[in-house]
């Protein structure tokens, strides 16, 4: 039974070893001084704040959520395209309905102004 799990255990030991070696090299070679550029805010779109009750603009998060929703819906097209030969016209019709719902949702969001970044 142990022979079945030995390759997995060996793989995990090699992966952890390589990870620890690379972290150690980065720690030894890297500079320990942090400059203001490295500590500046990124990805979130605003500077960090002290008070958790401070108001901030949520449009960034709305656009990010819309991107994730539409991106995940588009990700369903890849398995469909690969299996189109097996699913035939039924699959084509189902995907047409799916894309119609996607386009209607996109037009709705566009008309409501949710994609505006003003």
Model description:
The protein is mostly helical. The protein contains five helices and no strands. It is 71% helix and 0% strand. The radius of gyration is 24 Å and the shape is flat. It folds into two domains: 1-30; 55-118, NADH:ubiquinone/plastoquinone oxidoreductase, chain 3 (Methane Monooxygenase Hydroxylase, Chain G, domain 1), CATH 1.20.58.1610.
Describe the structure concisely.
The protein has 5 helices and no strands. By secondary structure, the protein is mainly α.
Overall domain count:
2
Q: Give, in order, the helices and strands.
A: HHHHH
Query: Could you tell me the number of beta strands?
Result: 0
The quaternary structure here is single chain
Given as residue ranges, the uncertain stretches (5+ residues, pLDDT < 50) are none
- By DSSP (H or I, 4+ residues per run), the number of helices equals 5
Rg over CA atoms: 24 Å
Strand content: under 5%
Q: Could you say which overall geometry the principal axes of the C-alpha atoms support?
A: flat
- Average pLDDT figure: 82
* Separation, N- and C-terminal Cα atoms: 62 Å
CATH architecture of the largest domain: Up-down Bundle
Helical amount = over 70%
CATH superfamily of the largest domain, please? NADH:ubiquinone/plastoquinone oxidoreductase, chain 3
CATH class placement of the largest domain? Mainly Alpha
Biggest β-sheet, characterized? none
Remind me, CATH topology of the largest domain?
Answer: Methane Monooxygenase Hydroxylase, Chain G, domain 1
Structural class by SSE content = mainly alpha
């Amino acid at each position: 039974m142990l022979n079945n799990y030995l390759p997995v255990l060996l793989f995990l030991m090699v992966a952890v070893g390589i990870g620890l070696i690379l972290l150690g090299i980065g720690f030894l070679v890297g500079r320990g001084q942090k400059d203001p550029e490295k500590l500046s805010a990124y990805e979130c779109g605003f500077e960090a704040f002290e008070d958790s009750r401070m108001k901030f603009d949520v449009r960034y998060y709305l656009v990010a959520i819309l991107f994730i929703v539409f991106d995940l819906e588009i990700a369903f097209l890849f398995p469909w395209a690969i299996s189109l030969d097996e699913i035939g016209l039924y699959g084509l019709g189902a995907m047409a309905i799916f894309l119609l719902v996607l386009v209607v949702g996109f037009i709705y969001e566009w008309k409501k102004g949710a994609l505006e970044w003003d």
